[in-house]
Amino acid sequence: MAVVEYIVSRALHPAVQALLLALLAGAFVVARRPRLALAGGVVAVAWIWLASSPAVALRLRGGLVSEAAPATPRADAIVVLGGGVIPAGAWALTDSRAGTGLSLWREGYAPLMLVSGSDQARTLAAGYALSGIPPADLRVEATSRNTHENARNTAALLRADGLDDILLVTSPIHMRRAAASFRHEGIHVSPAPAADDDRGLLMASAAWLPRREALTLTARCLREYAALWVYARRGWI
Prior knowledge:
Elements lengths: L1 H10 L2 H17 L3 H18 L2 H9 L14 E5 L15 H10 L5 E5 L4 H10 L7 E4 L5 H14 L4 E5 L2 H13 L3 E4 L7 H4 L9 H23 L3
Parallel strand pairs: 1-2, 1-4, 2-3, 4-5
């Protein structure tokens, strides 16, 4: 299953899709089908151009990112999902997932910090401990391998403490699926999205001029839309 997910994830990248179209065009050249070869080449170039444009990337992002809440409510716990960049410097000075969670805890929005994800939970927990969060206020869920397991396993830990109201910290693009997964497990969620790397694109003046950051964002959005479809089909959201 992991191999299949890896292949599908790579196939959803526009650069891979454009390459496959180019290879198809090459096959048509070999088969002496010049019109089909030209069509395949044009589509490949057009798709990689569109996928690399801030206008398309931000339009895709807009379908995933909700408007920020006017105020952050108090909650039983702050849940930080792994998968983001771990800052090299002081976490409190960043708006990463790690830094957002730490700031929320220091400002007293919730008394408990819970970190989830087999990839980063232990690293996050160690960093939070060094940042002053007492062990009694810290929970670690380090077995989940995807968002569905994040929600299921974290919900079990929260219910064991009699808690069901959280501030959820993840990236803006991931928040829609993550929040829906937690709500499916009976947890009340208040989104507290961390910043992502798309702020430069939000200020881009040349909306149709290809940029590498836009291509990366398009690829992330396409994977997220596909994941939302899969989660809906499996009854996880």
